[in-house]
Amino acid sequence: MLKKILKRKFVSSALVLSMLFVFGIQSGHAGKKDDTLNVGTKTELGNVDKFFNANRTGMLVQRLFTDGLLYTDPVTLEIKPALATSWKWINPKLMEFELRKGVKFHDGSEMTADDVVYTLNYVSDPAIKTKGSYLKNIDHVEKLNAFKVRIHMKEPYPLMPNRLAGGISIYKKGCYDKNGSLSQNINPNGTGPYRLTKILDGKGFAFEKFDNYYKDSPKGQPSIGKIVIRIIPEINTQIAEVLSGGIDWIFQVPTDIAESLANNPRVTLEQAPSMRIAFLMMDAAGRTDDNSPFKNIKVRQAVSYAVNRGEIVKQLVKGSSKVIHSACKPDQFGCTEDVKRYEYNPEKAKQLLKEAGYPNGFETKLFGYKYRPMVEAVMNDLAAVGIKTNLNWGTYSGMRGAWQKGKVPIALTSWASSSLSDVDAILPYFYKMDKNDLSRDQEVSDLIKAGGSSADSKVRLENYDKALKLMAERAYWLPMFSVGMNYIFSNNLEFVAPNDGLPRLFLTKWKK
Amino acid sequence: MLIYTLKRVLLALLVALTVSILTFGLLHLSSDPAVALAGEDATEEDIQLVRVQYGFDKPLPVQYMTWLTNALQGDLGTSYYFGIPVSTLLAQRLPVTLTLGSCALIYAILFAVPLGVLAAMRPNTWLDRFCLSLAVSAQAMPSFWFGLMLIVVFCLWFPLLPVSGSDTWKHFIMPTIVLGTNAMPAIMRLTRTGMMDVLATDYIRTARAKGLRPNTVLLKHALRNAVIPVIAVIGIQAGYMMGGTVIIETIFALNGMGLLAYESIMYFDLACMEAVVLLLCLVFITTTFVADILNAWLDPRIRIR
Amino acid sequence: MTTQHGILKKISGDDDIIEPTPGQIMRARSLRHWGLMIGGIVLCIIVVLAILAPGVAPHNPYTQILSDRLLPPVWDSQGSMEHILGTDQVGRDYLSRLLYGARISLMIGFATVLLSGFIGTSLGLMAGYYGGRVDMFINYLITVRLSLPGILVALAAVQLIGGSLPVVITVLGFMLWVRFAVVIRSATMQIRNMDYIKAAKAAGCSSFRLIVTQILPNVLNQFVVIATLEAAHAILLEASLSFLGIGVQPPLPSWGLMINEGKDFMFFKPYLISIPGIALFCLVLSINLVGDGIRDVTAPENRN
Q1: Does B201 touch chain C (CB under 8 A)?
Q2: What is the pLDDT confidence band of residue C299, given thresholds at 50, 70 and 90?
Q3: Cβ–Cβ below 8 Å for C186 and B185
Q4: How far, in Å, CA of A509 to CA of A488, rounded?
């Protein structure tokens, strides 16, 4: 009965939020008092060493306590020297780096070429279970002198600088010898702006400012004394923590919630883009069935005309997301939006379906794993032109397993390009004539391959341009929208929202 | 008794074997292991790399036998996701779950049994209806809703308790209430039904007619017989609690077994999954065993064979 | 001239102390049992609304109008009579979805309980009655089921057969039989050794007959309690399964699904979760009241 009354009260009451404001929250901004930035994140991290994990919390942690040879500026996305002071391509399979002098590890020792050689040779060893096949493309690293190294690659890989500015950290020579993949969890030792002081098993991580952090670092000097990252899987709990002052900074907040939360004067909402895009993938090669309707270009174009992407983005996705027309994030290198565009036109879609021999539409399966409301909106739009879809909802691995086996006629999926600003981090994975490729178009595949194996940016741009135009013309994908990121933080914090979706926590400062 | 115990141990081993095979099979059915382990943005090469590194390219029976051989030698293996031995991982997670589970169980029994008895003594009165409404609310209320409501009241309106985490005893108050309340309806309703049945039997009437004190009748004669089905359900409930529940652990950011099991499924952490499931098995076998013994003790007519 | 009917009437007419038929007693008792009446009326209203949903619902529950999403309900200052309970996150009328959702949720609740109750009760009766090896085997089944996480079973099911209403009901049915089995088992064990059962056995009554005619009626009370618990459980669980991929097919609504979809908006649009929540509360309460009531009415010797 009591609960019943509570529930009733709930519906009609002036709603929780207004109550929050009325009663106010006394504590608040606990972080600034003891100079500790409290961060909440959703996913648990298996291993603090980015070489051995594949998740977003891992990227937060890695960038705090380690540095790479290079660094990506969060705003301009330009690659800058970090542990290396300069780099050059000797040939498409060989790079040379001058290393910075006077860089200290957290244990006080100096970083030299030996550390770089050791780390990269260890993680590129095929026998070591590191994540990321690009690591295995490193053949070996050669020391020229104490502050000069060369990286030899097995295959030409124009994205190598981006990778070195992303997930590749440098650790101390010999660090892996005793405990293998767990060594950074047992004895974390990087060169980053913060020291990883404590790993709270399954609960989070504690960091402290590193006083001997090298001057002239592109990451700047750390400002906040301590950072604590806590794992809080439930978004509503994160919100409660932010409102009660227990947490100062959260990310990956759904737009609707973020916008409501931003009405609270104590928090700031920052909306920024990421490298992730969402798209509809269609079985153009007829792998599900030789009679698959999606083999017909007119059907694929009909789908493209049928989905009201503008309305979906405006009403559902919102934030910094935009409708995209090409199979890549518009600001990636090699991406062009100057391709055939499909504006919302259900009449034309019906017409095309009729021409394709489906005057009454057809029934098919649509796969999805996130963006549920958007998926339902797409299903609704498709149903309006006569394409009835049955939803196959599941986990990403379940869906990807099915599409690799050729069981997916149409799917709404997404790709984050490993946060790299280059189409080579997206196109080759979907148009390579392999089991991930739903279109199997030799012409497109060849163009993309040509774009990816040249170091000449003009040649690359030309090939990608042609490939993207063909892909849009033949409507293999319906590019849907770019995915924005919402950052919510206490209003006494200064935070630089990144353009690649990878937050750099070391750049946060308390407001004066 | 000895033979009975031996039989139960044999049964336990059989259950463990079946469950480990089923877990293995279902996990492989539920997703592509290499894709799950490689992560959402993995390239085909990344996935292939994982497939070879972890031996997913080998036939399934071979993979299972490898795991089984190691497990039989006491080696539960290394967690795929955390990279540490599964036994260490379980040792980290178990205390949280055990603390929460036992607190919640005690809380649930302390409230549910007396309320059930009260309701049975005064059926169809306001007291009975109040207890029923309480039980219904607890049933119809999703745990996450209740948990978040508690957070709103005790953390935002009246900042008395910490929102989430597991550092102090204060952190366990709200999760205990949510988890315990979840288990209450079944215990309360069964106690009520059982009591009402027993109170109407001849021997209770006889006892009353003999002029025994009402409390003696109630506690010594009636409750003893009424709780037998209740104990069975408490046994299961205890098993669920010790196994941890994903929703409550998620809401209060408690890193216990429930969350671990969920993550293991999502990240295809086979070694960890198998260990969690075997542990659950052990918990359920123990609780049902204890429940059976307790029942036999309470009602000697139930012979244990 | 008196007809035969008249004579009969005359005979019974002056006989005021004649016992009413059992049916009449039952009817009278039912009418006096306010718990049963209230529960019955609420349950009937829910069922009737569910059946009449196409006629009663103000809008088509599947029509999305994205620009009208998340409209507040009528009691909010910005609400309107157009959408009495507001709209959901893709702009579908919430009241219409609630009404249509009642159909699915009722079906899931009842069908699941039928299936799981049948499985659980048969197993529990057998285990409790026969004991020994049969009991061991059923114990084995129970422990195996309990140790397997439901999520894992659900994910495997969605990969194998995909999601649809019959799949949800089957999966839920095979997930929720355990409590039936365990409780019925121990209740049966208690009854098995009672004198009247022994007597019936001695009289040559077959085991099947004994179980069905003697033991089953005596464990029915426990069955009803568990059944009402599991019906609510099934309705809520369906939503979690739906988010794993084996719930009802969108755009079909269900209360569990609506509760789960409203979850993320809990702090800012609490009506999204409270409305289906209250509906579910009423349903569960009425089922419980009816269950209790039927028990009281049919087992008068238990009434104090």
Answers
A1: no
A2: low
A3: no
A4: 15
Disruptive mutation site among B56, B82, B177, B257 for chain A (greatest number of A CBs within 10 Å): B82
Q: In this structure, is residue A183 part of a structural domain?
A: yes
Cβ contact B40–A396 (<8 Å)? yes
Asked if the model's pLDDT at residue A70 lies above 90, the reply is yes
Pairwise CA distance, residues B53 & B39, whole Å: 15
User: What tokens were used for C81?
Assistant: 């009579």
Structure token pair of residue C136: 């061991």
Host domain of residue C195: 27-302
Distance (Å, whole) CA A317 – CA A377:
11
Q: Cβ–Cβ of A237/B44 closer than 8 Å?
A: no
User: How many domains does chain A contain in total?
Assistant: 2
Cβ-Cβ contacts under 8 Å for C103 (sequence gap 6 or more):
C50, C51, C53
> Mind listing the domains of chain B with CATH numbers?
2-72 (no CATH), 86-304 (1.10.3720.10)
**Helix, coil or strand: residue A66:** coil
Are A413 and A317 part of one and the same domain? yes
B-C C-beta contacts closer than 8 Å = 177
- The model's pLDDT over A29-47, given as tens digits with 9 standing for 90+, comes to 557 788 999 999 988 888 8
Instruction: Answer whether A198 touches B (CB < 8 Å).
Output: no
Q: Identify whether C22 is part of a domain.
A: no
Cβ distance of B142 and C277 shorter than 8 Å: yes
| Chain A CB contacts of B253 below 8 Å | 203, 230-234, 237
Together in a domain, A302 and A221:
no
Does position A252 have pLDDT exceeding 80, yes or no? Answer: yes
Domain coverage including residue A131: 43-231
Q: Return the CATH number at C62.
A: 1.10.3720.10
Residue A250, domain member (yes or no):
no
pTM, 2 dp = 0.86
How many domains are contained in chain C?
1
User: Which amino acid is present at A420?
Assistant: L
- Kindly determine whether residue C245 and residue A393, on different chains, have CB atoms separated by under 8 Å: yes
ipTM confidence score: 0.85
| Contact indicator for A146, A117 with CB cutoff of 8 Å | no
CB A310, CB A289: distance < 8 Å: no
Residues 124-163 of B with CB under 8 A from A: 130, 133-134, 137-138, 141, 144, 148-149, 151-152, 155-157, 159, 162-163
Of A266-270, A458-462, B121-125, C297-301, which gets the smallest average pLDDT? C297-301
Is residue A227 within 8 Å of residue A36, measured between CB atoms?
yes
Please state which of the ranges B63-67, B195-199, C292-296 shows the lowest mean pLDDT: C292-296
Write out the two tokens for B294: 């307790």
Closest-CA distance of chain A to residue C244, Å = 6
Q: What confidence tier does C16 reach under pLDDT thresholds 50, 70, 90?
A: low
Please report the DSSP string for A127-140 in residue order: TS--S-HHHHTEEE
Instruction: Compute the count of residue pairs across chains A and C with CB atoms less than 8 Å apart.
Output: 105
Residues of A whose CB is below 8 A from C281: 4, 7
CA-CA distances (angstroms) from residue A119 to A113, A138, A169, C13? 10, 12, 8, 105
- For chain C, give the DSSP string: ---HHHHHHHHHHT-TTPPPPHHHHHHHHHHH-HHHHHHHHHHHHHHHHHHHHHHH-SS-TT---GGGTTPPPTTSTT-BTTBTT-B-TTS-BHHHHHHHHHHHHHHHHHHHHHHHHHHHHHHHHHHHHH-HHHHHHHHHHHHHHHHS-HHHHHHHHHHHH---HHHHHHHHHHHS-HHHHHHHHHHHHHHHTSHHHHHHHHTT--HHHIIIIIIHHHHHHHHHHHHHHHHHHHHHHHHHHHHHT-SSPTT---HHHHHHHHGGGTTT-THHHHHHHHHHHHHHHHHHHHHHHHHHHH-GGG--
CATH of the domain at A51: 3.40.190.10
